Amino acid sequence: MYFDFFCLQAMPSMQEIWNAALLELQTQLNEENIENWFKKLRPYECSDAKLTLLADDPFVRIWVRDNYLDLIEEAIEHAAGQRLEIEILDGDGLEGEEVENIDVDLEPMAARSARLDESGAQTALFDFDSLEISAPADLDALVSAAGMNPRYTFDEFVVGSSNQFTHAACQAVASGSGQTYNPLFIFGGVGLGKTHLLQAVGIEMLRRNPATRVKYLSAEVFMNQLIQSLRQKTMAEFRNQFRHDCDLLLIDDIQFIGGKDSTQEEFFHTFNALYQSGKQIVMTSDKTPQELPGIEERLASRFAWGLIADIQPPEIETRVAILEKKAEDSDLELGKDVTMLLATSIRSNVRELEGTLLRMVAQAQLMNQPLNTDLARQLLKRMNIQHERSLNVEQIIRTVASHFDLKASDIKGSRRTRAISEPRQMAMYLSRKHTGESYPELGRKFGGKDHTTVLTAFRKIEDLVETGNNEFAAAIAELEALLLR
Ligand SMILES: Nc1ncnc2c1ncn2[C@@H]1O[C@H](COP(=O)(O)OP(=O)(O)OP(=O)(O)O)[C@@H](O)[C@H]1O
Q1: Which of 102, 166, 369, 475 could link 309 by a cystine bridge, Cβ 3.0 to 4.6 Å?
Q2: What homologous superfamily does CATH list for 393-484?
Q3: What residues does each domain of the chain span?
């Protein structure tokens, strides 16, 4: 067997293969992972087909086997030049080679690869530009190891006018075409998808190049790690991990460092070091840099050097699309009426929208009932969620009348020409659906009609909309868009 190990024309030892694999893993996983799992393994035996590693701690053995085996196999394949089966055995009582110095060279693999390519003198073993993560499971492992949620991808994000600018900026950064957007500063209200987009940048960069050293953390975690490093006198390592061992820094909720002077001081130097070496920084916040309370001017001005992008609460079409996507992803069947009811009840927080949907579905299942609008309305009431803006019958009558060039008195009157009776029936349908008032009460509000007239109108329009009658469905959708905006 011939190993091309870091361009040295010699057979590498089992220890060298393991060291090289660890070096590659170091470029993909954070230090904590390396310390907790990989430094606790040692190579034991190597044949043409198999490399055996030992772990003294049974938990480490099981955890690594269940979570990182694919990654190890890939790293070993790159190091050894061929695929080997990896086996992890209980090391208790077995002698293995101690792994002493895996930090032989902290220069990132990608940089090493590029330097060697440029010189042309040698062939680099690792070509990260062409390195593709084949199985999504590998990407998921990288993403989880970086502390991110594999679900927070661009694909899972529903784009609407409230977030399309920020979404586009994030995509530009992730594809490397947004080099002037440094830093990218995302701000917006609670639960609107800031963290989702922030992590989507990291996930996309890892997908494009698994060797990217992505650091994702909240500003609070940054501060906690800083305090711990000060206590444990490990500041050099703390600084290194952010200032040098990082290609992309994703900081969530930067507003947290407001008023925390030492954290701001440290972050200021981290920011400068990364910025000067051309490394991308993306931050999220609940306010613009200038509005952040307790943030030093020198930091606030730096935050505004690149691009500031905001996320607004989603408009009705986006709320509906988000609900449909979440329902589809969870294999849930959600009627159009229920979707609309939820989308009109929760307007300003996507997290709440998503959470309420899942709770409602779970409760309907527990009660063994289909999730129709009546049950959904009851559940919303029980969850103490009111329509954020409640519609009343008068408003609906006026809106329908003006949409069809009629007067409110036509809708409430008794003329039965089609041009009037159809809009009247639609107004009755919308009133029942969006106010939930009883049929007799609605009859009174529609000019003293019998409750069966309202009931018949409601059922007729509901039927037409559900069976996909385009003319009626389109008219109702237009009216709802007008009423619920
Ligand atoms: N446009 C969207 N498409 C799909 N899912 C979304 C969208 N916006 C938000 N979400 C979902 O809503 C939830 C909350 O989003 P996220 O945590 O990113 O909000 P945030 O703005 O960071 O909130 P906070 O201000 O509380 O930190 C997540 O599950 C996210 O996937």
Answers
A1: 166
A2: DnaA protein, C-terminal DNA-binding domain (1.10.1750.10)
A3: 14-119, 139-311, 316-382, 393-484
Most confident stretch, 91-100, 133-142, 285-294 = 285-294
Domain covering 139-311 assigned CATH 1.10.443.10 in the classification: no
Instruction: For 107-135, write each residue's pLDDT tens digit.
Output: 333 333 333 333 333 333 333 333 344 45
User: In the CATH scheme, what is the code of domain 14-119?
Assistant: 3.30.300.180
Counting from 1 in the atom list of ligand 1, the atom nearest the Cα of 158 is: 3
Residue whose token pair is 């920084």: 281
Chain centre to alpha carbon of residue 418: 50
Cα(203) to centroid of ligand 1, in Å? 16
192 lines ligand 1 (CB under 6 A): yes
Q: Report the atom number in ligand 1 closest to the C-alpha of 321.
A: 3
- Express each pLDDT in 400-421 by its tens digit: 999 999 999 999 999 999 999 9
ipTM, two decimals, is: 0.99
pLDDT over threshold 90, residue 188 = yes
Question: What pTM does this model have?
Answer: 0.60
Which ligand 1 atom sits nearest the alpha carbon of residue 354? 12
**195 assigned to a ligand binding site:** yes
Please give the Cα distance from 357 to 334 (Å, whole number): 9
Q: Which one of 318, 350, 358 would you pick to mutate in the ligand 1 pocket, going by the greatest count of ligand atoms within 8 A of its CB?
A: 350
- Which pairs with CB-CB distance under 8 Å and at least 24 residues apart come from 448-453? 453/428
pLDDT tens profile 56-72:
877 678 778 877 888 89
The answer to whether the annotation marks 413 as part of a ligand binding site is no
Q: Is the peptide bond before 183 cis (omega within 30 degrees of 0)?
A: yes
Question: Going by C-beta distance under 8 Å and a sequence separation of 6 or more, which residues neighbour residue 46?
Answer: 14, 17, 52, 84
Q: Note whether 393 and 387 are within 8 A (CB).
A: no
